Amino acid sequence: MYFLNSKTAQIDDLLARAAEKLQLDKARREKIESSYKAIQEVLENDQIYFDSKNFEIYPQGSVRIGTTVKPLARNEFDLDIVLHIKDNVYEQTDPMKVFTELKRVLQENLNYKEKVIPKTRCVRLNYAGDYHMDVLPGCQHNINNEDKIVIPDRELKDWLVSNPRGYAKWFMGKAESVTQTLLEKAYAAEDIPSDDFAAKKPLQRAVQIIKRYRDLFFEKSPDYATSSIVLTTLAGQLYQGQDSIFDTIDSIISQVYQKVNLSKAKRIKVLNPVDNEEDFTDKWEREPQYYTEFIRFSEALYQSWQKLKQDNGIVEESNILKGLIGENLYSESVKQQALVTEDFRKKGKVFSSSATGLLGSQKISNKPIQKNTFFGE
């Protein structure tokens, strides 16, 4: 295999760099980890309620499975953590007791009192301009399943079953079915060091890119945007072990397109893979407009991807990719890609195939590559 010598490999490299820019950087990750450890310490020091409880705090959702996406309109991430009380006490506990006590402790703390926003099932801490953290309180459901919890719902005033850690294990099990990505293989074949971005699994990157397109598509009507849990679950359920981001997205959206068209007037259902009694898309039944918008979104993504698969030329491919991930993100990613390639060119590691003009290695040509800019940039 020659270094990025195919359209798929070139686009994979670009998409991986784009996805890397969308996710939490190292500084933010460390800051967030410090934040939820601080919350745990505050709760452990509470002598009214939590000091007698055996609990742990851990991240859930996109942070846990590595699919975070920076919001379009602001530089603020949505992050979720779980306050998991391990004692099997929920049957003797008022659902609102845990919620109320969590809110009390945070509101009494000088560091958090101005940040607290009570939500339906969690307490939000708003770190203005940076990120907000949703703290989801829950109790162990039973001793036989360490991941299954029950969470309080303020509107229902009752417990709801949830399994965020089990869901993460399911998703990562799917993602890690591939031991080496296409990019890792491409870099390794030429003995060129790959950054961490190349090692992240295609399913994780695919979810990031699909979520990014979702944000762009619904930028003017965000209320109808398909939820991340629905998109992530569909991607995990339909993933077939591809080693490339390009092929992973192609397969997922093609299957979604087929499912939607085969179902005709009847909506598709997206069930929780760790609890088939939970329908993540039950809202589509109550409010059909959400399903209509999902169809519109999925068809637009499918059509754009079909165009990208064709040989449209550099300019058209650039325009398609800009539409998929956003013009600024595209430009930043192409610039980084070109800088990396130029660095390898100076070291004599990257050459052009005289047959194709695509990136190759010294093994196939002795003609050093000219300064490279992918996709016409």
Considering the chains and any ligands shown, give keywords for the structure:
about 375 residues, alpha+beta, Beta Polymerase, domain 2, 2 domains, 7-stranded mixed β-sheet, about 45% helix
Can you offer a commentary on this structure?
It is a single chain. By secondary structure, the protein is an alpha+beta fold. The protein folds into 2 domains: 7-22 and 172-331, no CATH class; 26-164, Beta Polymerase, domain 2 (2-Layer Sandwich), CATH 3.30.460. It is built from 13 helices and 11 strands. It has helices spanning 7-22, 26-44, 62-65, 95-108, 164-175, 182-189, 202-217, 228-238, 245-263, 282-286, 288-309, 314-325, 327-346; strands at residues 55-60, 77-85, 116-118, 123-127, 131-142, 145-153, 158-162, 271-272, 275-279, 351-352, 359-360. The strands form 3 sheets. Strands 1, 2, 3, 4, 5, 6 and 7 form a 7-stranded mixed sheet that branches. A two-stranded antiparallel sheet has the order 8-9. The longest helix has 22 residues, at 288-309. It is globular.
Short note summarizing the structure:
The chain is α+β, with helices and mostly antiparallel strands and 377 residues long.
Number of domains: 2
Strand count, sense and closure of the main sheet?
7 strands, mixed
Estimated helix fraction:
40-55%
Overall SS class: alpha+beta
Instruction: Outline the low-pLDDT stretches.
Output: 351-377
| Order of helical and strand elements | HHEHEHEEEEEHHHHHEEHHHHEE
| Helix segment tally | 13
